[in-house]
Amino acid sequence: MKTMKDVAERARVSVSTVSHVLNGTRKVSEETRGEVLAAVEELSYRPNLLAKGLKTRRTFTMGLLISDIQNSFFTSVVRGVEDVALSRGYHLFLCNTDEDPVREDEYVSELVKKRVDGLMVAPSARREDHVGRLRAEGVPFVFVDRDVEGVDADVVSVDNRAGMRLIAEHLVGLGHRRIGMISGPLDKASGYERHLGLRDALVDLGVGMEASLVRFGDFRTSSGREGARELLSLSSPPTALVTANNQMTLGALLAINEMGLGVPGDVSVVGFDDPEWAPLTGPPLTTLAQPTYEMGVRAAKMLLDRIEDGPGNESKKVLLEPWLVVRGSTAPLKEQERVGRMLE
Fold first, then answer.
1. Which residues pair with 214 in a beta bridge?
2. Cβ neighbours of 84 (radius 10 Å)
3. DSSP helix, strand, coil percent of the chain (3-state; round to 5)
4. Cα–Cα distance, 254 to 14 (Å, whole number)
5. Statement: residue 344 has pLDDT above 80
6. What residues have CB less than 8 Å from 3, skipping those under 6 apart?
7. pLDDT of 280-333, one tens digit each?
8. Is it true that domain 59-158+292-319 has CATH number 3.40.50.2300?
9. Are 131 and 151 in contact (CB under 8 A)?
10. What ranges do the domains of the chain cover?
11. For residue 137, which of 169, 173, 105 has the smallest C-alpha distance?
């Protein structure tokens, strides 16, 4: 097994210089750094992480708890986290809580037992006791995608309320007044913020949101399908439909198709999230896009700063800006009514 001394001899530098290059503990010239890394590659040298961990009291591992591994929203988030982690010598444990607070607590306990250096968590509920548990474990943590109301903790998420305002302004600008919503559950921060965001924006725009035009789902496809069926079966259905995440959007589109309705001829549709398949629907879907990769990158960097700098600094809350992607699934109300009459 090759040692750090072998690397130093191959690169013609001191052992301490090799250590500084691999651990990033001191600035080394780019030329020397390149020679050391080339020697590492040639010799297939692998650092002794156990010895390194004993010295630094770190395992160079992090945990990431996401709420639904089947949700494509998290794919880009995880990629951003992993890219940052690997670039700084850390490896990642990925856990799926399935929106289950009990499972989430179990994963936190197990990861702490494995002595991870820090945790990133998409909370399954807006629970203050959850934060107390994390803090009691003494492990640095960052919330991703969802905040916990009234709790002072590091958070990286999207500005859900601003995003819903963009959607509201778009639909009202097209002449829609009966705007329905398939909301996420109110015990999840993202569901709560998106529901209030749309409601408040519509009130500010002088339209308001009728309680009869709201259905609550669980961020899964089946609940979007059920909610859309109920809303579009009303005697006076909404002319526009807003869904609170990509999976419920998919469910809503399935219901619309099964009911023999057209988009946007019978109903305009806007989805929160901009999945890869959004431009492929017929017509292409108008969406509220989120900087998911950046969310992962920012969360990982924030956590690593906590790990390396130690506690004591004030918590940070980062709200990333979403943007509206207008495609073919929304239309002016008058045009929508005209198309609807043509199809009758």
1. 181
2. 21
3. 50, 15, 35
4. 65
5. no
6. 45
7. 999 999 999 999 999 999 999 999 998 887 766 788 999 999 999 999 999 999
8. yes
9. yes
10. 4-47, 59-158+292-319, 160-290+325-343
11. 105
4-47: in CATH 3.30.1360.40: no
The one-letter amino acid code at 190 reads: S
pTM: 0.81
309-311-313-318 Cα dihedral, nearest 10 degrees:
80
Tell me if 4-47 shares its fold with 59-158+292-319.
no
Sequence-distant (6+) residues with CB within 8 A of 40 are 7, 22
**What are the Cα distances from residue 228, in Å, to 98, 194, 272, 337?**
23, 17, 15, 19
What are the two backbone dihedrals, phi and then psi, of residue 180, each rounded to the nearest 5 degrees? Answer: -95, 160
Q: Which amino acid is residue 294, in one-letter code? A: E
Residue whose entry in the numeric block shows the structure tokens 């850390």: 90
219: how many CB neighbours lie within 10 A of its CB? 24
Q: What is the pLDDT of residues 146-184, one digit of tens each?
A: 887 777 789 999 999 999 999 999 999 999 999 999 999
Beta strands, E only, the chain: 61-66, 91-96, 118-121, 141-144, 155-158, 179-183, 214-216, 240-243, 268-272, 286-289, 317-320, 323-325
